[in-house]
Amino acid sequence: MSCWTFLVAFSLLVPWCHAGCAEVDSMTEAVAGEGFLLGCISCKKREEVSARATVDWHFKRPENHEFTHIFHYDHPNANVLHEDFSDRLQWQGTLNDDVQIGAVYVQNVTFNDSGTYRCTFRRTLFLPRQPENVVVEKEVELTVVAAANRELTAVISEIVMYVLIVVLQLWLILVMVYCYRKIWDEHEAREAKKALEAEGSLLESKDPCDGVQAE
């Protein structure tokens, strides 16, 4: 129930740019030794306008002052541009010229991957009069940890789930007790009614002349 509530709230809070595309922020915590999806979404304001876009990813460690170009996507080519990410970056975004999802998947995350990632969309909108160039930049502050930290939402959802289970079990016990007592009362009432009917039948079957003859 709590998960469903979360999904409903999520769908209401996400700002829809147009049908089929929602700009959702990337996760910001990765676990060392595991994979991680760097999310980056840039929706077009008008879906009916055809466009073409390329995506670039840059990376800056906390101790550095400048960004390093690590990845470039120009459909259908995806190129890893830095040796630190060689064979570790995979394109997980849109698979056509009109790129709106620029996500990349990082394999085998290390603590050296902590830092700031900048995603840059360079989009050309083919408008009726003349093409228009648009640049969109988004940043992700990534922290790499040894073990996953449970989010507060997940903890609260689990607590609510267990509380609901306990409440439902107590309610079920109360219902069973109520039904048992109701069935028992009905059984007692039927037995009492049968006893009265039997007693009435016995009195009716007794011959009133027996008393007269005895006198």
From TrEMBL:
Tell me which UniProt keywords the record has, alphabetically.
Answer: Cell membrane, Disulfide bond, Glycoprotein, Immunoglobulin domain, Ion channel, Ion transport, Membrane, Signal, Sodium, Sodium channel, Sodium transport, Transmembrane, Transmembrane helix, Transport, Voltage-gated channel
Its localization reads: Cell membrane
Q: Which GO terms describe its molecular function?
A: sodium channel activity; sodium channel inhibitor activity; transmembrane transporter binding
Looking up SUPFAM superfamilies in the UniProt record yields: Immunoglobulin
Q: Where is the Ig-like domain?
A: 15-143
User: Does Aminoacyl-tRNA synthetase appear among the keywords?
Assistant: no
Q: Does the keyword Transport apply?
A: yes
What is any one of the record's Gene Ontology cellular component terms?
Answer: voltage-gated sodium channel complex
Q: Give the transmembrane region(s).
A: 159-180
Membrane topology label: Single-pass type I membrane protein
Q: Which GO terms describe its biological process?
A: cardiac muscle cell action potential involved in contraction; regulation of heart rate by cardiac conduction
> InterPro entries of this UniProt entry?
Ig-like_dom (IPR007110), Ig-like_dom_sf (IPR036179), Ig-like_fold (IPR013783), Ig_V-set (IPR013106), Na_channel_b1/b3 (IPR027098)
Q: What is its main location?
A: membrane
Q: Where is the signal peptide?
A: 1-19
Oligomer status and interactors: A voltage-gated sodium (Nav) channel consists of an ion-conducting pore-forming alpha subunit functional on its own that is regulated by one or more beta subunits. Forms homodimers and homotrimers. SCN3B is non-covalently associated with alpha subunits and induces the formation of alpha subunit oligomers, including trimers. Interacts with SCN5A/Nav1.5; regulatory subunit of SCN5A/Nav1.5. Interacts with SCN7A/Nav2.1; probable regulatory subunit of SCN7A/Nav2.1. Interacts with SCN10A; regulatory subunit of SCN10A/Nav1.8.
What is the similarity comment for this entry?
Belongs to the sodium channel auxiliary subunit SCN3B (TC 8.A.17) family.
Stated name of the protein: Sodium channel regulatory subunit beta-3
* Upper taxonomic lineage: Eukaryota, Metazoa, Chordata, Craniata, Vertebrata
